[in-house]
Amino acid sequence: MEELSVKSKIIKSVYFSQDDGRLRICFKNGEERLFEGVPSSEAHAMTVAPSPGHYYLDRIRTRFRRLAA
After folding, report:
1. Which InterPro entries does the record match to this protein (predicted)?
2. Which of 46, 47, 56, 69 could form a disulfide with 6 if both were Cys (CB 3.0 to 4.6 A apart)?
3. Where are the alpha helices (DSSP H) in 1-69?
């Protein structure tokens, strides 16, 4: 997995795998979420969004399958 740079109030770090579309989001509160089938365009759009946290809530959490981390 490749670490993607992100500046967010709630997200600490983001990792994305081009191979299988897995997106790992590490939050500042210590929680982690792992999603599969995420296109690279969505992963990168989240990291450059004005609010990556809102992007996650609106575009990632509701659209992609979450895996047990």
Report:
1. KTSC_dom
2. 47
3. 40-48, 52-55
